[in-house]
């Protein structure tokens, strides 16, 4: 029950912050954005203290660990792979153009 109350408070805070952001349009955009970010931080903190929030935070931590394990390609590997993809796209485009031309010729020959 306490988790539901925390989540409801977090949602109400965010809704109020968004409503106030648009209501006080005569004030500086910088101040309104800072206020919105501050309330969003409070809402996220409050939501992270629930069961669902702690599960989401655990998922985010696990995701960061997995991202660190990824072996990213070097610049040379990226360039080479990109060139191979461009080459293959050109080859397939030429093949499709040839097939289209052949079929177009065949249809013209049959219909004339």
From TrEMBL:
Instruction: Name the keywords, alphabetized.
Output: Cell membrane, Membrane, Protein transport, Translocation, Transmembrane, Transmembrane helix, Transport
Q: What residues form the membrane-spanning segments?
A: 7-24, 30-47, 78-99
UniProt xrefs under InterPro entries: SecE_bac, SecE_sf, Translocase_SecE/Sec61-g
A Gene Ontology biological process noted in the UniProt record is:
intracellular protein transmembrane transport
Q: Offer an example of a GO molecular function term for this protein.
A: protein transmembrane transporter activity
Q: Name one Pfam family in it.
A: SecE
Where in the cell is the protein located?
Membrane
Q: Name one GO cellular component term.
A: plasma membrane
Name the Gene3D superfamilies for this protein: Preprotein translocase secy subunit
Q: Indicate yes or no for the key word Glycoprotein.
A: no
PANTHER family listed in its UniProt record: PROTEIN TRANSLOCASE SUBUNIT SECE
Regarding protein family, the annotation reads:
Belongs to the SecE/SEC61-gamma family.
Q: What does this protein do?
A: Essential subunit of the Sec protein translocation channel SecYEG. Clamps together the 2 halves of SecY. May contact the channel plug during translocation.
Quaternary organization: Component of the Sec protein translocase complex. Heterotrimer consisting of SecY, SecE and SecG subunits. The heterotrimers can form oligomers, although 1 heterotrimer is thought to be able to translocate proteins. Interacts with the ribosome. Interacts with SecDF, and other proteins may be involved. Interacts with SecA.
Task: Please report the name of this protein according to its UniProt entry.
Answer: Protein translocase subunit SecE
According to its UniProt entry, this protein's organism is Methylophaga aminisulfidivorans
């Amino acid at each position: 029950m306490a988790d539901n109350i925390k989540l409801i408070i977090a949602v109400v805070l965010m809704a109020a912050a968004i409503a106030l952001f648009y209501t006080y349009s005569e004030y500086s955009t910088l101040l309104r954005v800072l206020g919105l970010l501050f309330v969003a931080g409070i809402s996220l903190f409050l939501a992270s203290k629930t069961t669902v929030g702690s599960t989401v935070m655990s998922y985010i931590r696990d995701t960061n660990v997995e991202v660190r394990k990824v072996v990213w390609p070097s610049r040379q590997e990226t360039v080479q792979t990109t060139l191979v993809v461009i080459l293959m796209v050109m080859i397939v485009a030429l093949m499709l153009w040839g097939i289209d031309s052949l079929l177009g010729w065949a249809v013209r020959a049959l219909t004339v």
